[in-house]
């Protein structure tokens, strides 16, 4: 349980460390085969139960990993470490005492090894979640299962297989080297790919932030132009007032003020509301999406009334979710008669609510399967985006998503909580 908690970052309540072993002992005493084989698969089953929408290969990895580590390091202690201090474990009459000692020392020994090798399971987990190396992860999973199968066969049929202990020892020596080499490779590869992803994301953000800055500069330019025009307009009105010429004043208002007022209320000026987003990365990405929508003829509306500093989840995950929803909303709105897009960021106590709403060509969209992989109302193979949203949100159990479609509008509301 300690090994599983370390690799999966799943924190168990302290009492489970007493309850679960006791339950397991009872099962083992009542039905030894169920206890023996259940030992190998209990954490695999729990991984799939706790993270049903996660990477299946990763669920299998974190489920099998504790069993393999306990076996590898336990035998390393028994065959190599203990003999160095004069303890011949398998020659002693009372083996159970040394079994307990091995189990007690395995976890601290394991922590020492990963600290020495500088294995960072946080980076490794991110790499698995981003599908950086699914093929390599498949190889690791298969190798662990094969190792467990061989060791189990040698233990169960040890009396019928000559030199079974000798074979187990050598298989353990070979696989422990291979296993940690694979972990080191995956860890270093994951770190490099994460760095590349961050650098690429930063380049995109800088470009989009630059576009946002240019857009704001253009808006300020237009406002300065309005200011200059308004001085002339007020001068014209003053002349009309001085001459008591109501028709002249009416003409100025209808011909100039009316049109310029409409121009000031143009949706592109709503983009200035992004100043309430206090993170340049989020601001730049969202501005890029909104500017793209506006340039493609979509009417945009923005609601961000409060200053937003904390996005409640990993920043890159928030940007991915927001980008997917905006991209889908823009594409769907363009198919409607009057393309509209609304984006809102709302602070509600300890929660941050993201709302993305768009116009649709149909009065109501079928929302029952939209998060299934590959599903899309636009055709086969177009539903990857929303499936990714569900996978990202699966990492944040306190976050939730709701979807609504009615009256030619489709909206998705995501509530982010820590």
Helix/strand structural class? alpha+beta
Poorly predicted residue ranges: 260-267, 377-384
Bin the strand percentage.
5-15%
Shape: elongated
What's the number of helices? 12
- Mean of pLDDT: 79
Question: What is the number of E strands?
Answer: 5
- Order of strands across the biggest sheet? 1-2-3-5-4
Cα-atom radius of gyration: 31 Å
The SSE string, one letter per element, is HHHHHHHHHHEHEEHEE
| Overall domain count | 2
- Our measurement of the CA-to-CA distance between the termini, rounded to an integer number of angstroms, reads 25 Å
Helix content: 55-70%
Largest sheet: 5 strands, mixed
Could you give a short description of this structure?
The protein is α+β, with helices and mostly antiparallel strands. The chain folds into 2 domains: 2-194, no CATH class; 273-418, Heat Shock Protein 90, CATH 3.30.565.
């Amino acid at each position: 349980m300690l090994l599983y908690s370390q690799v999966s970052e799943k924190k168990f309540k302290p009492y489970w460390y007493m309850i679960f072993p006791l339950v397991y002992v009872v099962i083992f005493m009542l039905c030894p085969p169920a206890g023996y084989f259940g030992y190998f698969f209990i954490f695999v089953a729990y991984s799939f139960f706790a993270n049903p929408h996660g990477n299946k290969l990763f669920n299998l990895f974190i489920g099998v990993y504790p069993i393999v580590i306990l076996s590898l390091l336990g035998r390393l202690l028994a065959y190599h470490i203990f003999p160095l201090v004069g303890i011949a474990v398998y020659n002693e009459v009372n083996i159970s005492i040394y079994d307990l000692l091995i189990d007690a020392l395995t976890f601290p020994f394991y922590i020492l090894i990963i600290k020495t090798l500088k294995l960072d399971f946080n980076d490794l987990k991110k790499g698995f979640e981003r599908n950086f190396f699914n093929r390599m992860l498949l190889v690791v999973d298969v190798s662990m299962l094969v190792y467990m199968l061989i060791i189990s066969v040698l233990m169960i049929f040890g009396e019928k297989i000559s030199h079974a202990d000798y074979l187990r020892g050598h298989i353990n020596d070979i696989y422990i080297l291979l296993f940690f080499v694979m972990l080191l490779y995956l860890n270093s590869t994951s770190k490099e790919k994460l760095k590349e992803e961050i650098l690429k994301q930063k380049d995109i953000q800088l470009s989009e932030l630059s576009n946002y800055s240019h857009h704001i500069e253009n808006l300020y330019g237009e406002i300065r132009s309005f200011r200059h025009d308004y001085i002339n307009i007020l001068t014209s009105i003053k002349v009309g007032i001085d001459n008591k010429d109501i028709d002249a004043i009416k003409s100025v208002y209808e011909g100039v003020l009316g049109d310029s007022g409409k121009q000031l209320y143009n949706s592109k000026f709503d983009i200035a509301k992004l100043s309430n987003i206090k993170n340049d990365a989020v601001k730049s990405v969202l501005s890029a999406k909104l500017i793209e929508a506006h340039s493609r003829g979509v009417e945009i509306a923005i609601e961000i009334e409060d200053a937003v500093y904390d996005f409640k989840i990993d920043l890159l995950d928030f940007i991915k979710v927001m980008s997917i929803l905006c991209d889908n909303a823009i594409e769907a709105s363009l198919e409607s008669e009057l393309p509209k897009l609304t984006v809102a960021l709302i602070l509600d106590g300890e929660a941050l609510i993201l709302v993305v709403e768009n116009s649709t060509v149909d009065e109501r969209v079928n929302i029952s399967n939209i998060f299934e992989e590959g599903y899309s109302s636009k055709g086969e193979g177009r539903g990857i985006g929303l499936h990714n949203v569900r996978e990202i949100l699966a990492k944040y159990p306190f976050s939730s998503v709701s979807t609504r479609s009615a009256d030619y509008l489709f909206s998705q509301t995501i509530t982010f909580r820590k």
